Amino acid sequence: xxxxxxxxxxxxxxxxxxxxxxxxxQIRKLENTLGVSLFDRSRRPVRPTEIGQRVVVxxxxxxxxxxxxxxxxxxxxxxxxxxVSDLEFWSVLFPCLxxxxxxxxxxx
Length: 108
Fold this sequence. Notes:
Elements: H1 2-6, H2 9-16, H3 20-34, E1 39-40, E2 47-48, H4 50-76, H5 81-93, H6 95-106
Antiparallel strand pairs: 1-2
Helix pairs in contact: 2-3, 2-6, 4-6, 5-6
């Protein structure tokens, strides 16, 4: 999501509080796993491919739903440590998304 909104890996990495090589590596790993290119790196600003745009939209839905999970946790008073530890799984798929969810949960 950050690469899409920032238009560059450098700016997205800064926004996500990770190094640019780490962000690039995670996105490349995801692309290799999925067998598709998510971003057109030949253009400036960097833009998602057609399938990349669909993945970005889905990531936004995941983020919104994660907010709903946090609301449920707040209502029920459930300890959030398990939820936060499960975010490690998402870090491979969406490093910036994971950081945003983690920050939201931690600041509650």
